[in-house]
Amino acid sequence: MKEMMSDAFLMEQRQLERIGDLMNLDKNIIERLKFPKRTLIVSLPIKMDNGETKCFTGYRVQHDTARGPAKGGIRYNSEVDLGEVSALAMLMTWKCSLMNLPFGGAKGGICCNPNELSLGELERLTRRYTSEILQMIGPEKDIPAPDVGSNEKTMGWIMDTYSNYHGYCIPGVVTGKPVEIGGSLGRRQATGAGVAYTTRNCINNILNNSKEHYDIVIQGFGNVGSNAAKYLHDMGHKIIAVSDVFGGIYNKNGINIDELLKHIEKTKKVEGFKDSTPITNEELLILECDFLIPCALGNVITKNNADKIKAKIVVEGANGPVSSEADEILLSKNIKIIPGILANAGGVIVSYFEWVQDIQRLFWEEEEIMKNLERLMAKSFNEVHKLTIEKKTDYRTAALMIAIERVAKAKELRGLYP
Ligand code: GLU
Question: Which residue among 351, 357, 373 is best mutated to probe the pocket of ligand 1, counting the most ligand atoms within 8 A of its Cβ?
Answer without folding.
Answer: 351
